[in-house]
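ok so i was messing around last nite and threw this chain in just to see what happens. nothing serious, just curious
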Amino acid sequence: MPKTSTSCGTFRLSSEKLNRLRKVSEDKNITPNILVNQIVKAHVNWHSMAAHAKLYYLPKSFLIKLVNELTEEELNDLALETAKNDLVDISLFLRGGFTIASLSDITETWLRISQMPYRYEINEDSCKIIIEHDMGFKYSYLIKEISRYLLEVVFETKTYCDITENTITIKLEQ
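result:
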């Protein structure tokens, strides 16, 4: 990636918050500067716009219980509604457009913010993402159906999805 230009700024923090930042950076084995840049990036790319994009924070256990109460038909309806309505608006609001690239960027930001383990694999003719969510089979199914609808129906790409109890693999053929 090309290097972006940087500028210096001075910010005042309470001693307590500065000490906490130093402790967190030490625990993560990164410099305080890198940590502050990560915090600012997360704020600018997600947190500052999340509520405006109708994104809210819920406890993981609460979300798991809700999803597990849905039937397969209800999961399909939710996936279709989410893909057709919500994700279009979220993409337009957070990234200014609705493309595979904007959805990919939003997905990666969401996974990073959620601290959900994931891995991208890109080669000449395909792109694959593996997500480990630890939220159960119905959650895997819901995400698979949202992804399938967006990628196959909206963007007309050849897609392969594989799900397990706690992981989702989505592969795009280029």
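not much to say yet. Residues 26 and 32 are 8 Å apart (CA to CA).
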